[in-house]
């Protein structure tokens, strides 16, 4: 078993990144004009990297399967982005953000990477303000902050409930400037289907034009994968329906190790599943937990009456409500981390206290916040003896200013007014902390192949704190990769353009075309979605919020059988050389069917509970996660060997020199 070299710089934690930047090699501006970089994915991580590298002078080729970078799934992030600015004067600092992130990840993240993330976080806000991102501001004009789960300070910058959209537009505007200059060549509606390795280095990709079906060869001196997470392996998730693992999985099959695939985040505040007809789930921002209180009825008979429509939640007296997060975790209350809140909701619903027809929902109630804000507004407005109705009206106006688009979205989907009736929420698959293994420089185990944002594993451990995804994506794209990739590319200043008429490109293109032809000519009887839904049910039932050894072993066998059946019986209508969305899905689901097995294998080997990975065999008497730091304090990085069952485990031991590793507690 190889020991992975994470290339973490020596020295004091607070000085590692600064010293590393001073030590690495640079590329002369005149030489940058002769170097090409491919970036796959144009969300926040990819878009920020493309814009920054092009600004530095590199020639960038950017690929996205959407019709525009503005459609990247980063647009869906709602609640905010973390930064250690301490604008509230409530004790925040770079170290505090670093500590909260490592603790939130249940001590399964790399210390040096997380500290660097916290260190550059403040720069992200300045960068985005300069781009015109309309962050919320206080009355005096200063940027406003709110709190998120797993922390005791307010460090989250936000733009109402559409922070991801506004940040993406900032990155997109920076990209557009470089597209106009000719420094970025944009390939919309293109999907990467393989990476090309020449002399051991990543030197290009094979891509499919999703409009014409043409298979194309693109070369570069380095390849950056910024294609997001793999939550859609569960079929139902909060991800956009097109989100996939293909780019990450293709480089895995070419030699990039895949790390911690079982670390998947279940988000506690999603609109509950309504039936088998659904193709995706909708997230309600975690920011709502700042003001919303989560509860279920205290009595089983009340829960049953609510499910049957005989009792309205607003009719239930305060003393008959169980604010279970406030009861179990008094220090953090409704702002416990996502994994803790999700398991607590599942526990209450499994016990029979769920409040919708399926019994899988809890309430997120804003009544108290509306009255509290209304009273404050009435007092500051000089109102004397306002009525409850007047206070409620004022309070609803405040809530609308903070969360209005989220409330509007909920009402459109559920057809209930959340100002008058508590929202119903339930956990759902959201983010993936696992991903492609990268070193401190964000390089994978393939030289010249980098991976950024959610597609890599590096910063969140076993559980991501809210508002940290946008932080990591922009940190990687704007402030980390542009430095570290230069160290590698400094060896390529005399290489010249990479030709595409080589045996390596021939072989990669042939592999892609062979797979496409196999699907097109397969006279099966079942649709791609038929198999994707089956895979999703196996994953959710046996690899979801809670796992056990028996279920994981069954999942491995069932996924293997499903994969065999998929290749024999899937039907892909249409032509290869044409627009063909079913073919696109088939290629993606083929990768999910391999990833799903490795996911279950990784979860089975990790005999502990930590963060989003909860093994039923390893829990405390109170139902909390029980880690095994003696045997499992490492990153599990898997090497591809032809089949998921043959994957070889490599370990990166996690060393904590600046944080005391202890049992997580939010009580």
TrEMBL record:
One of its GO terms (cellular component) is plasma membrane. InterPro entries: FAD-dep_OxRdtase_2_FAD-bd, FAD/NAD-bd_sf, Fum_R/Succ_DH_flav-like_C_sf, Fum_Rdtase/Succ_DH_flav-like_C, SdhA/FrdA/AprA, Succ_DH/Fum_Rdt_flav_su, Succ_DH/fumarate_Rdtase_cat_sf. It is found in: Cell membrane. Its EC number is 1.3.5.1. It catalyses: a quinone + succinate = fumarate + a quinol. Gene3D superfamilies: FAD/NAD(P)-binding domain (3.50.50.60), Fumarate reductase/succinate dehydrogenase flavoprotein-like, C-terminal domain (1.20.58.100), Succinate dehydrogenase/fumarate reductase flavoprotein, catalytic domain (3.90.700.10). Transmembrane segments: none annotated. It is a peripheral membrane protein. Keywords: Cell membrane, Electron transport, FAD, Flavoprotein, Membrane, Oxidoreductase, Transport. Its cofactor is FAD. GO terms for biological process: anaerobic respiration. One of its GO terms (molecular function) is electron transfer activity. Residues 36-470 form the FAD-dependent oxidoreductase 2 FAD-binding domain. It holds the Pfam family FAD_binding_2. NCBIfam families: PRK07573.1, sdhA_Bsu. Belongs to the FAD-dependent oxidoreductase 2 family. FRD/SDH subfamily. This is succinate dehydrogenase. It comes from Abyssalbus ytuae. The lineage of its organism: Bacteria, Pseudomonadati, Bacteroidota, Flavobacteriia, Flavobacteriales.
